Amino acid sequence: MDIPAGTALTGFWSRPLFRLQKRKLSDIITPVTIPRIIFLLLLRWITDMWCFFWFMVLTLTTLIFPRLAAAQGETLYHLVTGGQEVCHVEKKQSLNFLALEKGLRPWVLAKQTKLKVDTLLKPGTVLKFDTTHIVPTELTDGLVVNLPERLVYQFYMGVYQRRYAIAVGKKTWQTPTGLYKIVNKEENPTWTVPVSIQEEMEDMGWKVLEKVPPGPKNPLGKYWIGTSGENLGFHATNAPWSVGHAVSHGCMRMLPSEIAQLYPQVSVGDPVKIIYQPVKMALTPKGHIYLEAHPNIYDVKMDYLEYVKKMARSYQLESRIDWRKVDTVLKIRSGLAHDVTKESATVTDAVTPAPANKPRKLGLFPLQVQSSRVE
Q1: Fewer CB within 10 Å: N-end or C-end of the chain?
Q2: Dist CA 336 CA 328 (whole Å)
Q3: Contact indicator for 221, 258 with CB cutoff of 8 Å
Q4: Burial class (CB in 10 A: 0-12, 13-18, 19+), 139
């Protein structure tokens, strides 16, 4: 093939390449040069793709940076449930245990009802109180434990069921955070005393026990739900007064009546996620911002206000928050969720949660469906 007649000797058809105007193209494109040309074209394509890749990375990072930042430790939830509840006391019980059944701190319920924590409630007593709370939707199925709350949340097929009060590890024997799964279940379990607890018994001058058979002296009570964590699980207790406190050796104690309700609803293989979240924030579908604060039971180094500010920046919510309300919530740390939206609108009333003291049998519908949310 000859070089086209009259073609200007610039660019591809320049003299440096062909030198002679009438040199044939077949003399240049030979079996030796073809691989070189293909290599150069491939190198150019790879370079273009590499540049395009990093361009997209930078673009997406710029657009979703707040979400990426928030994913690293600050989770914004979206489900707020509970609300104003009218409770008809059905059995003789203390205000303290009623508070545990409702997922409230006893002093919070006492303050709302203007009663003392140790008040003995009579059947037929009617109480009105608030139970609004943010649901930590860390899983769609399984159990989520938030240690500062001393509560475990149950989820089934993407639906929040309810929450239960628990006792967690004491400050010197903390319940570990992490993702686990249920590995065994046992009714009327025999307690095989861990070596670490045997050593503690010896240090305290107590009789060292290796095993405790089922019965009233067994600290595991009638039910055991074991997880993949070492010596970590949920169990009933022969010391129900301890539920709601940080007093255990790492396990999560439950009220006997409540673990009897939970036990048939969980299965081996179900996930269990344990988190440490003293402050929770939620953005509801209606655009309201809720904030909930709890005591820092393990004295983890953190500044509550700075944490909230960081989360607000991460999700670009700073201008929509009434920071005076935030200060109040963080000061009281009641465990109740409060609307901290600036110029907040009227919130839809919540449906009363399902009673805590009525166990659900296998095969029945969930105790509490998502329609019971505040928004």
Answers
A1: N
A2: 12
A3: no
A4: middle
Greatest alpha-carbon pair distance for the chain in Å reads 112
User: Domain limits at 247?
Assistant: 161-276
Using alpha carbons, list the distances in angstroms from residue 317 to 4, 32, 210: 66, 64, 55
Q: Is the pLDDT of residue 1 over 90?
A: no
For position 248, which CATH number holds? 2.40.440.10
224 lies in some domain: yes
The answer to whether 174 and 194 have CB atoms below 8 angstroms apart is: no
Would 184 be classed as within a structural domain? yes
pLDDT digits (tens, 9 = 90+) for 233-263: 999 998 899 999 999 988 999 999 999 999 9
Surface-to-core class of residue 49, CB atoms within 10 Å of its CB (0-12 exposed, 13-18 middle, 19+ buried): exposed
pLDDT tens column, 50-69: 888 877 766 665 444 433 33
Number of domains, the chain: 1
pLDDT at 150: 97
Q: How many angstroms separate the CA atoms of 342 and 138, rounded? A: 27
Asked whether residue 6 is domain-assigned, the answer is no
Strand partners, 198: none
pLDDT tens digit sequence for 176-219? 999 999 999 999 988 777 777 777 777 777 777 777 788 888 88
Question: What pLDDT, on the 0 to 100 scale, is given for residue 355?
Answer: 40
